[in-house]
Structure formats: C-alpha cells, structure tokens
C-alpha cells in the first residue's frame, strides 16, 4: 500500500516537474526578442535623447570654446601679444580638442541618421495599423491641422496605435531639428577645418599614426566625403538662388541709375530746383549703395563657399 502511494507520488511529482518545465520554457509571442529595428518608441526614444544631448553639447563646445578660442589665439599672435612658441603650443592643444570634437559630431550625426531610419520604419508600421483600423490616408495632413481623426475618438482600441504614431513623428522631428541646428555654412567650415588640421598633423608627424587611430580617421574622412557629396548638391541649389538674387539686384541697380539720369536731366532743364534735386538724388544714391553692398556680400558669400568646397575636394583627393 505504502509502495503504491509512494509510486503514485513519484509519478505525480515527475508530471508536475515536467509541467513546470514546459511552463518555464513557454514564451508568449510578444515576449520573444524582436529585431533591433522593431524596437518600441520607448526604447528608441531613450537612445535618441542620449545621442541628441551629446550631439548638441558637442556642437556648443565647438562654437563657444574651440572655434572662438582658435580665432582669439590667432588675433593674439598677429598682434604680438604672445610669442610664436606659446602660440604653437596652444594651437596644437586647441587643434587636438577641435579635431576630436568634430570627429564626435560627425560620428553622432551618422548614428542619429541611422536612428532616424529606424524611427521611419516604426512610423510606417504604425501607419499601416492605423490604415487597417479605418483611418484615412491623409493622416499627416490631419495632424498638421491640429486635428484628431474621428475614428480615434470613436474607437478606444485605436488610441494606442495613434499615440505610437505621434511619438514616432516626434522622435523624427527631434532628430531633424538637431541635425538642422548645424547649418550648411557651419558644417562645411568644420569639414574644411578638420581636414586642414589633419593634413598639418600628418605633415608634422611624418604620417606616423597608430593602426587604431588611422582606422578612426579613415571612418571620419569617409563621412566627410559622404557629407561633401550631399552638401555639394545643396550648394548647387543655394548657389543658383544667390546668382538669381544678384541678377535681380543688378536689374534694380540699372533702374535706379536710369532714374538718377532722369533727375539730373530734369534739373539741368530747370524742371526741378536744387532742393528737390538733392533730395531725390540723395535717396536714389542711398538705395544704389544698399543694392551694391548686397551684391558684393552675395558675391563674397558665393566665392567663399566655392573656395571651401574646392579646398575640401582637394584635401580629400590628396588622401586617397
């Protein structure tokens, strides 16, 4: 009797243990590890916020400390406030910090672009869910108007998808805002500065760089080349706009000169007195000077960017 009970007890224990093992190994589909690109908004938002903070902090350091410090150092040396040996030592220190910060900005930019791509995948996924739930195609237009689709208000089961969709949009918007904070002129100047400093360092050190450091530099230069291609396309469009502005201003300049000739002719014929002549000519000359200054500034801007693009292209081709 005892042996029978003991045998049944052992069998029951074995069965219970088997059931517990199966339960422990059982995973609900939603608990299984998802691919990295399928991460939720919460997970991705944490990564994005960390990178954004680092990106913005590094840009601030470059703007407020390193670039300003480099300019001040150059002024002090040219004015004779500091001797050449101190200038060289400080220049080396600032240049080293500047290159490290620029490298960090470019690497962070690359990471943010990748995170943005992940967010776009998440956005597309939520949009499909919303469409399947009966929402119209023009979801983004509705959001821009500050409205909420009536389906979301009518069906609470859609609300989670809607919140996720809005969160993905917010993440993408935050990344775009941060990347745009480094404007065209700043970015192209940083690329030129970085490549120029690296060329000087290589010349000074005889090209002696550790394999690890060489790998880092090559990666940053790859990003510089990639960014140059994109910036060159952008510059072609900006350049056309600037040239069109110059042409429009030159037309206005020609019109003002014709008006000045007319005023001078009327004064010579006695149609207007000296007071009226001086007043009209003075106003026209002021307008002409303003336009000529705008044209000069635009031409200098175009020449300056053209020179930077050429210099960057030259520095990159010299490294290949």
Structural class: mainly alpha
Radius of gyration: 33 Å
- How many structurally independent domains? 2
What characterizes the major β-sheet? none
State which percent range the strand residues make up.
Answer: under 5%
How would you describe this protein?
- By secondary structure, the chain is mainly α.
- The protein folds into 2 domains: 41-182; 211-320.
- Helices cover 84% and strands 0% of the residues.
- It has 9 helices and no strands.
- Helix 3 (84-132) packs across helix 8 (211-268) and helix 8 packs antiparallel against helix 9.
- It is flat, with a radius of gyration of 33 Å.
- 15% of the residues are buried.
- The model is unreliable at 1-12 and 21-32 (pLDDT under 50).
What labels would you give this structure?
9 helices, 320 residues, mainly alpha, single chain, disordered N terminus, 84% helix, flat
What secondary-structure arrangement, pairings included, does this model have?
Elements: H1 2-25, H2 41-78, H3 84-132, H4 139-144, H5 150-154, H6 159-181, H7 184-205, H8 211-268, H9 274-317
Helix pairs in contact: 2-3, 2-6, 3-6, 3-7, 3-8, 7-8, 7-9, 8-9
Condensed summary:
The protein has nine helices and no strands.
């Amino acid at each position: 009797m005892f042996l029978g009970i003991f045998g049944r007890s052992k069998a029951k224990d074995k069965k219970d243990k088997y059931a517990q093992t199966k339960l422990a190994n059982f995973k609900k589909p939603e608990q299984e590890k998802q691919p990295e690109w399928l991460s939720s908004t919460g997970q991705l938002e944490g990564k994005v916020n960390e990178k954004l903070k680092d990106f913005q902090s590094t840009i601030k350091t470059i703007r407020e400390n390193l670039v300003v410090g480099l300019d001040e150092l150059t002024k002090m040396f040219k004015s004779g406030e500091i001797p050449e040996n101190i200038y060289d030592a400080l220049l080396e220190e600032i240049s080293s910090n500047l290159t490290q910060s620029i490298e960090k900005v470019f690497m962070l930019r690359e990471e943010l672009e990748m995170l943005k791509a992940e967010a776009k995948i998440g956005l597309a996924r939520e949009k499909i869910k919303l469409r399947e739930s009966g929402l119209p195609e023009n979801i983004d237009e509705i959001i821009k108007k500050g409205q909420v689709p009536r389906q979301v208000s009518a069906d609470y089961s859609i609300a989670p998808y809607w919140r996720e969709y809005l969160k993905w949009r917010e993440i993408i918007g935050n990344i775009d805002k941060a990347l745009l904070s480094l404007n065209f002129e700043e970015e192209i100047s940083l690329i030129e500065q970085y490549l120029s400093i690296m060329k000087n360092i290589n010349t000074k050190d005889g090209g002696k760089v550790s394999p690890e450091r060489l790998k880092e530099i090559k990666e940053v230069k790859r990003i510089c080349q990639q960014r140059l291609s994109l910036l060159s396309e952008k510059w072609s469009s900006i350049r056309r706009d600037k040239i069109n502005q110059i042409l429009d201003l030159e037309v206005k300049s020609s019109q003002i000169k014709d008006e000045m000739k007319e005023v001078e002719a009327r004064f010579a014929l006695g149609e207007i007195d000296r007071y009226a002549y001086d007043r009209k000519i003075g106003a026209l000359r002021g307008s002409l000077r303003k336009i000529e200054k705008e044209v000069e500034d635009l031409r200098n801007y175009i020449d300056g960017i053209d020179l930077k693009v050429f210099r960057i292209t030259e520095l990159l081709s010299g490294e290949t």
